[in-house]
# Entry
Amino acid sequence: MARTVDAADIRYMQMALGLARRGLGTVWPNPAVGCVLVDPQGRVAGRGWTQPGGRPHAEAEALARAGARARGATAYVSLEPCSHRGETPPCADRLIEAGIARAVIAISDPDERVSGSGIAGLERAGIEVLTGVGTAAATEVNAGFLRRVEDGRPLVTLKVATTLDGRIATHAGESRWITGEVARGWAHFLRASHDAVMVGLGTAIADDPRLTCRLPGLEDRSPIRVVVDGRLRLPLTSQIVAGARETPSWMVTLAGGEARRRDAFIESGVEMIEVKAGADDNPDMGLALAALGDRGLTRVLVEGGGKLAAALLKARLVDRLAWFRSPDIMGGDGVPVAEAFGVDALTDMVTFTRLSIVEAGDDILETYTFSG
Ligand code: AOF
Ligand code: ZN
# Structure
């Protein structure tokens, strides 16, 4: 008779999910998957997670470590093992060949090449399959991949650093630094776990940010930089353009911009993404995100400013908020976190559900998920 879920199943799936998270920000266009193989004596025989660029897959890594000890093992996998033949054999086949006895799988893979056939293959080979362990956590880890496969666009996290009263700069434009060092370190970690970081032209000019991850030990985890600049106004000397050969920079712009200016960006190594204008003559953000999804991005961190934040909020394109709040009050002449986006009635507001609150030095970090 098939065994039901026990405490060890939950514990090892949590371990697999922890391994999966290591890949976030580096594995796109693939999902970040974790795999733990536990031998019949209850010892961990091998652990693996999806490698940078999306390959090798988690299961292949774990099997390589376990060797013969995979025989009779239980495989804990945070996403259904793949069943399609890419450059390497499918993970489901590899698990079968290695002789595992049981598989515990958090969620199925919505990729149309897989979508249930990985699980079906394991079952056909006589392997006992248990699904639904760690489903909520696995859905969150894979939220970016799921968004890309299901909606053709990356998951969007809006990160802001505000005063208590939601201001991001003084009326004179001073914004460095509203939140403290701990919060800023945390923000760099967010960069590392996203595929790309996006800013609007105003922020790119005012702050001239590098948008890289400069946390010690994670310097190689810098995301792609994306700037939304409808009319090619970003100076060629800005850090995003000048450093495009070291850290990739993409520019979302309107089609039909001045050819010489466009060529100058391309010459500097910037990848140009042309989209049509939305209602406000700026690039349509739905189209922009679809173009980023086409290029394989699964997780985009938006770092401002108030205009881009408003455009995304208005279009209901913000999936998560990472809100750092300092214990200061600036008053009404400070720059608001989001420009006006036409809310007349309370029912027009964009609504989120809080996921967590944590302290970050003197500041706090609240995270939210979109709810309507
Ligand atoms: C797994 N384990 O660790 C990952 C999986 O282009 P390929 O051949 O690497 O395949 C990409 C697809 O494989 C991706 O869309 C998703 O369905 C699956 N990712 N599967 O068994 C893994 N990263
Ligand atoms: Zn695979």
